[in-house]
Amino acid sequence: MRAIDSTQIKVWDPFVRLFHWILLGAFCTAYFSEGEVFEGLHERLPGELLQGMHVWAGYAVAGLVLFRLWWGFIGPRHARFSDFVYRPGATLAYLKRVLTLTAPRHLGHNPAGGAMIVVLLLSLTATIVTGLMLYGADKGLGPLAGLLAETSSATIDGIAEAHEMATNATLLLVGAHLLGVVWESVLHRENLVRAMITGRKRA
Length: 203
Known about the structure:
mainly alpha, two-stranded antiparallel ribbon, 9 helices, 2 strands, 72% helix, 3% strand, elongated
């Protein structure tokens, strides 16, 4: 056991790990507290409580995304965008090698993982913005309430549809992310989920 431990090095800093797991919890809370997602939950809990959970979980997601953007520029090496954002050609070339089981191992995020982070952040941003717009237009609350006070019902319906589309797109990306984690864990024989908990990977 000591020999194995001696080969482990620190890769993910505590802030990246906290961001990852708190974001997961906040997104799940926002998703399952939404009115049409989990009917069984809504039969047991008051609507006002669930709406409050949805709103505050959404604010938490927004704060976490802003933090990750900031940390992507000033954080330690493997947290920075400069460490894992590659050109599209390099990302496509890596994906081809993944499919042929010849992809090289990266200590930090690999090109495909880096691309997934960028796309997820964009999708989450779209979900946040449309959510704030819907909250302001439909409920007259939130930071955009003043701008959207006179919004028509047809426009509100359009915003709600856009919010749902952004949410579903984020869910699909999360599924693809999980598939990639499993694939890379098997390909390189290391537990990437555990690495995101402990912050350490094989040297």
